[in-house]
Design brief:
By secondary structure, the protein is of the alpha/beta class. It contains nine helices and five strands.
């Protein structure tokens, strides 16, 4: 199975690009979705997270308050490391299971932490969705609201933009028109179909 890893900083437009690939029938494994799955109410992981951080990170319905947790971990490297040590192996296991079940010509692994974790070992090619850091901040603030300092901390915690670009096989600049972005995704999709045939 030929696997393309799609990544980019927060607010870069990964979800939009992922949706365009899905429109072509490409199977997508989304690490963000899996990160929610591993901490569903009743899961051992959520119990451990609540024990460690306290009930303040739980909403009234028992689900994880991701916003509250984000404020804690992105301002405290020790707590962030603890959380990643717990969740990343669980997410990696689910990624492997979902990629194995993928039935399209090639599969897309969408992950904001593709290059920060061992998730890059699952992929044959890296596609980076790129925007300036100012665009990242503006889009994230407009989409999520929240504390500007937390948004800046999240951006700072991710792989530096230059390092991400150096590790990319393909780069999508997502500061142009929607039509231009769709054209580029179409071109990449056709290229990946060819790579998938060679990989068989």
């Amino acid at each position: 199975m030929f696997v393309v890893g799609l990544t980019g900083g927060i607010g870069s437009g990964k979800s939009t690009v992922t949706r365009y690939f899905q429109n072509f029938g490409v199977c997508v494994v989304d690490a963000d979705d899996l990160s929610r799955e591993v901490v569903q109410p009743g899961s051992k992981a959520l119990d451990e997270v609540a024990r460690h951080f306290g009930s303040k990170i739980l909403q009234k319905n028992g689900t994880l308050d991701r916003s509250q947790l984000r404020q804690i971990v992105f301002t405290n490297p020790t707590e962030k490391a603890w959380l990643e040590g717990l969740l990343h192996p669980l997410i990696a296991d689910l990624i492997q299971i979902r990629l194995t079940a993928c039935g399209s010509a090639y599969c897309l692994l969408a992950s904001p932490l593709l290059l920060e974790t061992d998730q890059h070992k699952f992929v044959d090619r890296v596609l980076v969705v790129d925007v300036s850091e100012e665009t990242q901040f503006t889009r994230t603030f407009n989409r999520d609201g929240g504390d500007p300092m937390t948004i800046r901390a999240i951006i700072a915690s991710q792989t530096e933009r230059n390092m991400r670009l150096k590790r990319a096989d393909d780069i999508l600049i997502n500061e142009r028109s929607e039509a231009a972005l769709k054209r580029e995704v179409t071109d990449l999709h056709n290229q990946y179909l060819k790579f998938a045939v060679i990989d068989e």
